[in-house]
Structure formats: structure tokens, C-alpha cells
Amino acid sequence: MDKIYDLAIIGAGPAGMTAGIYAKRAGLETIMFENSAPGGKLVKTFEIDNWPGESRVSGVDLALKMYEHTTSLEIETEFVGIKKINNDIIKTLETEDGRTFKAKAVILATGTIENKMEIPNEDRLTGHGVSFCAVCDGAFYKKKEVVVIGGGNSALEEAVYLTQFATKVTIVIRRDVFRADKVAQEHALDHPKISVIRHTVPIAVVGEDHVTAIRLKDLITNEEYDYPTDGIFPYIGATASTTSVAHLNVLDPLGYMIVNEKMASKVPGLYGAGDVCVKPLRQIVTAVSDGAVAAQMAFLYIQSIK
User: Fold this and answer.
1) According to the model, what pLDDT value does residue 84 have?
2) 3-state DSSP assignment of residue 237
3) pLDDT (tens digit, 9 = 90+) per residue, 28-40?
4) Burial 29-63 (b: 16+ CB within 10 A, else e)
5) In angstroms, rounded to a whole number, what is the distance separating the alpha carbons of residues 281 and 151?
6) The one catalytic residue among 2, 97, 123, 133
7) How many helices (H) and strands (E) does the chain have?
8) Which of 49, 123, 136, 252 is catalytic?
9) pTM here?
10) DSSP structural state of residue 139
11) Do 94 and 83 contact (CB within 8 A), yes or no?
12) Which SS3 state, helix, strand or coil, does residue 289 take?
């Protein structure tokens, strides 16, 4: 395409959509790219109780409100992933379907991808009892038993969500203590449908056409055994979605984007926002802050190169 946009935003999660709102208000010719549904991890989150002004709101509802805001501003959106961002004064973005777009500045707000357990039969039975989205698939487990792997906020929050369908939810954690905050722990551990297996890791998914059990290993006794279940929901962290900039030397050893307080990378005109960046706290509220800062700094950069 011959058109040169002022700003291209990669990712339509909270960070990306906020960046879009601020960019349009600043008068920037903006295009936003998203390879899935607008909202990012919001659409996979059952309930949010730490968003200022909303004591309790569903992730889907909050995502919809944000997306409606962007559409009201007529932010041009392409529902396609970006394969590579080529660095130059005018940056070229290569899409996964073979097109190219050009922009003076780019904000990468692609978030993270859920980690897999990396155990036998996981890939084969994904979609047949292994799921990475309780909100998406929870209803399939009505009156069934499920296992949640992980001890962070996401694991415990989704375990509580699953109790509205499942008759029993078992949380499996590697350690004796949870990484989740106190409120999330209280909600989960006080629920009568939830039990916890500690000092244990998954070593295989069991089943032919669908999940029938998960093979577990007790890290204290080294005992291995099959734990019957109808569904498995891994929540064991995530990996930054940064392959489009992997060649630009802007990532830390774990693959997260290195930015300064202005959300700028060391590549002029390339900014990061949200979970994709190196940061001490990954929350919706910090993502929208990043998006606002990145858009404003991109505006100032674009003004400087005119």
C-alpha cells in the first residue's frame, strides 16, 4: 500500500485500544491490527474486581466498552497478525496474509501467549478436554470434574469461575504456597467445590479421543499416578508475543520488550505498551496507562520528524 499512516498499533487489548483512543484525540492517522478478538485477555477473564469505578465487571463487558469507544472514533482496524516490523524512518509492517502497511511510528501491544504444559498428549487433546480459556469452554463441563494447573491469580480466578459448571475443581500447584494475591486465594480456598493438590506437577495428559485423566507426580514422594478428570485448564504463565520485533534487538532474555519510562524502545519510533513489555506489574490498569503514554510519546516523535 502507498498510504503512510502516522501510527500503527499492533494489538487491540486494553493497551492497544487506549493507545488508539489517545492517538485519534491527538489527530494522528491511526491504524490498529488485531489477530484475534478485540480485548486481548479481557475476553478470557470471567470477572474483574480491581478496575477503578467498577467494583465488579466481566472481562467481556469491559472489552466491549473499550472496543465501542475505539469504533466511535472510527479507528481503522485490520483483523490480521503482523509477521514482521521492518525498521526505517518509515516503518513497514508485513502482515500474516502477505500485505504491507507503512507508518511513521509503531506501538507494539501484542501481550502474551499462554504457556503450555509441554507434556505428552497435550497438543493432541487440546480442544478435546485441554483448554486454555475457562470463559470460552467452561460451559462444556457442566456437572463434570476439572483440573486447573497453576497457582497464580489467573489460575485461582478461573477455578472459581469453573465452579458454576463443574461439580468439582481441583487445583494442582508445584509448591506449597500460591503466587496469587490474598483476595484470590480467599475466594478459591473458601469455595466448597475447590480442592488443592500441592507439591505436584503434571507429567502427561491421559485419554484417546478426549481427556479422561491427568498423570501427576508428587515432588516429595516421586509417586506418579493418574488423577481422573474430564477437563484440564493450564494457567502456568505466559510468553511475550514479540516475534515481529525479534530481529530488532529490543528484547530482554525472556523475550519481553525493553522500553523506558516513555514506553520507547531503543529503535526510534518503536514503542511498547502493556504485558508485552518488561514491567513489575501486568494488570489492565497498568496496560491502559502504558497505552496512553506510548500514544502521547509517539505523537511527539511524529511531530519531530515532520
Assistant:
1) 97
2) coil
3) 999 999 998 899 8
4) bbbbbbbeebbbbbbbbbebeebeeeeebbbbebb
5) 17
6) 133
7) 6, 16
8) 136
9) 0.83
10) G
11) yes
12) helix
Report yes or no: 248 and 87 within 8 Å, Cβ to Cβ: yes
Q: Which helix H or strand E contains 149, and what residues bound it?
A: strand 145-149
Q: Is 277 a catalytic residue?
A: no
Q: Where are the domains of the chain?
A: 4-114+238-305, 134-234
In DSSP terms, which residues pair with 270 in a beta bridge? Answer: 106
Q: Which three cell numbers stand for residue 244?
A: 515481529
pLDDT in tens, 11-57: 999 999 999 999 999 999 999 999 988 998 888 787 788 899 988 88
Cell of 136: 470460552
Q: Cα(173)–Cα(178) distance, rounded to whole angstroms?
A: 8
The predicted-structure confidence for 236-251, as pLDDT tens digits, reads as follows: 988 999 999 999 999 9
Given 2, 49, 88, 137, which residue is catalytic? 137
3-state SS of 166-186 is CCEEEEECCCCCCCCCHHHHH
134-234 maps to CATH 3.50.50.60: yes
pLDDT digits (tens, 9 = 90+) for 52-75: 998 888 888 999 999 999 999 999
Q: CATH number for the 4-114+238-305 domain, one of 2.30.130.10, 3.40.140.20, 3.50.50.60, 3.40.630.30?
A: 3.50.50.60
* Grid cell of 259 as nine digits: 522500553
- Grid cell, residue 285, equals 490498569
Task: Give me the phi and psi of 30, to 5 degrees please.
Answer: -120, 140
CA–CA dist 219, 138 (Å, integer): 29
Q: How would residue 133 be classed by pLDDT, with cut points 50, 70 and 90?
A: confident
Identify the sign of the CA torsion 31, 6, 272, 249: positive
Please give the Cα distance from 280 to 262 (Å, whole number). Answer: 16
**4-114+238-305 with 134-234: one CATH topology?**
yes
Residue 79 clears pLDDT 90, i.e. is over it: yes
